[in-house]
Amino acid sequence: MKLAAVILLAAMGARLEAQGPTNAALAASQAAAEAAADIQEQNDLRQAVSDAGNSPVDYIRAVERHLLKYPDTKQRAAIEKSLAKSAMDTNDAARIILYGERVLARESPDDTQLLDRVIRALVDKGDPSSGTRAAVLAIRYQADLQASRSQQPPGHLSRAIWSDLIDANMASAMALQARATGNAGNPADAAKLAEQSWATYPSAEGARAAGYWLSRLDRNREAIEYYADAFAFEDPRISAADHASDRARLSELYRKVNQSEKGLGDLILAAYDRTAALRASRSANLRSRDPNAETVNIPDFILPAVDGTAPLRLSSLKGKTVVMDFWATWCVPCREQHPLIESVKKHFAEMPDVVFLAVDADDDPSLAAPFVKEQAWESGYFEAGLARRLVVSAIPTIVILDPSGQVSSHLTGMEPQRFEAMLTQRIEEARQAR
Question: Whole-model pTM above 0.85?
Answer without folding.
Answer: no
